[in-house]
Structure formats: structure tokens, C-alpha cells
Amino acid sequence: MTRRGAAILMAAPTGLTVAAVALALPQVFAGGGPLRAMANLAALTALTCLPPLVLLGTRNPLAVQALGLARAFTVHRALGLVFPALLAIHAGLHTYRFAEAMGLTSFQAALALPNTWEMVAGKAALALFLAAWGAALLGTAGRLPRRIWRPVHLAVHLAAPAAFVHALFRGEDMTRGWLFTAWAVAAATWLAAAAWRALGPRTA
Fold first, then answer.
1. Are the C-beta atoms of 66 and 13 separated by less than 8 Å?
2. Angstrom distance (rounded) from CA 15 to CA 188
3. Which of 79, 97, 144, 162 could crosslink 139 through cysteines, CB 3.0-4.6 Å?
4. Considering Cα of 58, then 64, then 67, then 68, what sign does the dihedral take?
5. pLDDT score, position 84
6. Average per-residue pLDDT in the chain?
7. Alpha-carbon span 193 to 190, nearest angstrom
8. If we measure between CA atoms, which residue out of 43, 49, 37 comes closest to residue 76?
9. For residue 144, what is the DSSP state?
10. Number of Cβ within a 10 Å radius of residue 180
11. What is the Cα–Cα distance from 186 to 180, expressed in whole angstroms?
């Protein structure tokens, strides 16, 4: 396969996810106030980051051929900074909305958020994503040995399914229209990349 072909195939799931989110914007901003819309938009933007993030992070042959190993690592690292920030914005804005509605502080609201099973999945995903990000940040800076940070960083493969479940069952209107298309493309890309990582050749 040519480098251009690999780049097109790698960009396809990201492009489809971005297009689906763009087409769903009227649905995202339909009622509920600007804070709700911005919180959900942050989560959807994070969703569009997942296809390239997992393809690059698993050193998928498409990503390596399209960008080269060094550039793939650079892009993965950059997305790795954006992705947890978007998740933090999503969680923070929804917590703030809940605090305002209930007359609580943000800290009290974070503790008082309903612990339905899909919320527990979301909280677990957020904690695992942040742990994976922090471990990689410290590890690549030489502050943690590889034997410690690498297994923690691989927690993303536990966080991703929890995040997809949370998005589908907790996300407002996520099962309808273009929002479901965005979810399905991102989920399928993660599943394919995770399967390749599990079944493909071992890499360092």
C-alpha cells in the first residue's frame, strides 16, 4: 500500500466521525442551555479524537506508514494532551450545572452526582484516562520507570469501553441520528485497533 493510501484509510474514521458530529450540531444545541451544549460538545470533540488516538497509540501499520513512527508518536502525544482536557471540561461543566441546580458547591456536587451504573462507567473511564495520561506524561519525562508507567498507560484499553458505554446509555440522544453514527464509527475504530494490538505482532 502507498503512503497516500495508508493516510486516506487512517483519516477515514476520523473524517467520518467529525462529519457526523458536525451534522449533529443542531441536535446538540437544541435546548438545555449553553452550558449543557458546551459540555456535550466537549465530549463529542473528545470522541472525534479517539480514532486517531488509538490508531497512533497502538502503532497501527496504517498510522506508521502514513506518518512515520516519529511523527506518529508526536501527533499521538499532542492528542494525548487535548483528549483528557476535553474530558475534564465535559465533566466539569456538567458538575457545575448540577451544583447550580442543587445549590451545592462543585465539590459537593461531584460527590452527589447520581451513581447509576452508566455514571459509574463514566467516572471510571475518566479516572482511568487521567491515570493513563499522567503515567505517560511522567514516564516520557523520565520520572517513572517504564515497567510502572507503561502498564498504567495501557489502562486506556479498559477506559475506552467504559467511556463508550457511558456515552451510549447516558449521553442525551446518543442513540439517534448522526450522534449514533459518530459513536459507532469511533467505537468500531477503537475495537479494530484494540483487536490488532491484542492479536497482532508484539511491539515494544
1. no
2. 14
3. 144
4. positive
5. 92
6. 87
7. 5
8. 49
9. S
10. 16
11. 10
